[in-house]
Amino acid sequence: MSKSHEDPKSRILLNETSDSIRVKIKAALTDSIDGLSYDPTERPGVSNLLALMSYMDASHRSVEQITAECQGLSMRAFKEEVAETLIKGLTNLKERYDYFMSAAQSQYLQEVAAAGNVKAGLKADETMIL
Known about the structure:
Elements: H1 18-26, H2 44-56, H3 63-69, H4 75-101, H5 106-129
């Protein structure tokens, strides 16, 4: 997954649907080596999925713990686990995102942007004086 890659399939956005997350994780590039191991050089795709799962895991399991616990899974089953972990982990963020992007919050966002603009302008003025 990469936020800077041109392909929209290379990233998961906050407003992504659960089905879309499942499709993207299912299509994530991995390898044909049996088992799971965290090795970013030799197995970048699998290592990326392990890291994503660790970051979003509600139990705060490490990559090593997840690797050990998912060792017997097929790659398909592991990807399903990753997708479900991401969906659960993103639920609260998605709800907050939807709330702040709602029409009811548009005035608040405009006020925050305006305050930031003033603050940035003051800092720029200070810099230009130097």
